[in-house]
From TrEMBL:
This is RNA helicase. Belongs to the DEAD box helicase family. Keywords: ATP-binding, Helicase, Hydrolase, Nucleotide-binding. Residues 238-406 form the Helicase C-terminal domain. The gene is an3.
Amino acid sequence: LEMPLNELVCFNIEMAGYKCPTPVQKHAMPIILNKRDLMACAQTGSGKTAAFLMPILNQIFEEGPPKNIPVMFLQQSASQTRYPGRMKQFPMALVLSPTRELACQIYEEACKFSYRSRVRPCVVYGGADPVQQMKDLDRGCHLLVATPGRLVDMIERGKLSLEMVKYLVLDEADRMLDMGFEPQIRRIVLEDNMPPLGKRQTLMFSATFPKKVQELARNFLNNYIFLAVGRVGSTSENITQKVVWVDEHDKRSFLLDLLNAAGLKNAMNSRDSLTLTFVETKKGADALEQFLSKEGYPVTSIHGDRSQKEREEALWSFRTGRTPIMVATAVAARGLDIPNVKHVINFDLPSDVEEYVHRIGRTGRVGNLGLATSFFNEKNRNMAMDLVELITETRQELPEWLSVLAKEVQLEHRSSNPRKYGGRRYGAGGFGSRDYRQIGRERGGSNANRSVPPPNFPSPTFAAAPYAGNHFMNTYRNNYGGNYAAPATDWWGN
């Protein structure tokens, strides 16, 4: 079955070069278009961002503005805001993101899918000039992408109200919790004037959903559908995984061998063959960048201590191929969609398998092929069993030494703690890849905790009605604007 989308959405999909939906888009979009809350787990690079942006924008285009538009006003005094006289915005859709880079990426995708419409996306994030971001908000905001900290700041400044939010998206929810954003998220969702459960549609997307995130969903989601596309927490079979034993003192020379084999020395403007190298520390990133630069390699780096301008410049230089090698800490690991990353190198392996999955997911995206090489030594023994499981799942060649080491580590775990040892990546219950409500039913839980089976929604199609001039403008009402705060400005900010 086909599910027709608004012709403007279809036009922008075609302009973006999309031919057919990915599996997560095929299954998630009908659920969202049918106004159900959703917790979606899918492999990195599977098209999760478009999976929630396209149906949200489609519904905004089709439905028009809410009927209960708040009374227009200008803030009157400094007691209401530190910036009296500025306009307050009432976005219809809010997307929360853990990092500045991911927020900017989602914003760019939103601009792409709202092209030639009056819907105006905005983005706010820490590390950038708040005054400039407020000026951008003054022009109108209908879909807002934000990091939690800066969003709270803008609410406190009186620049934003969440009372008209109809669509809430938590992207990379596990990462936001890991970064300590839970207090801000709870305030945004539960305390500020966000519409309650049942009055808004809430979506959670990530490549991994550990137990703490699934438990948090009980507070944020209403009668939701749990969607798992592929093996949750696993990697794409399009990524060839290589694990090599490299002693700590040999890492730099081995890295040079890999880069030389790829012909990257003195390479410039090589945007079709980008190499992303991960290290664990900020100092390590700076040191490795300096080393590679002295060796004559075009390299840049990115980590949390860099200013926003420096981070954006580094990403631009890497994306365009001016510096086809980038050294990064985990700040760049989550959610970033950088085309043409052919090789991911784990110079330093992370301490947990979920971070490993996100790192190597920067290559092999949306059906493309990629290579991930990881340097392994005695410091990484705790990762042996998880790596064996991942490599085996994707039916790839497993180094014999790694298999032997994993068995040794397994025996050590069993002998040291036989009762607690579960033998699975997420513990004996497998909680990270399944709906906790289903687990509750299997254990004899109450009906309230039972999983709700997804309805038989029709699949979406990207081949709906052809774009015909400005005909799509007829879907808008005359009062369909977004800047409620200024009587002289319509809802679109015009």
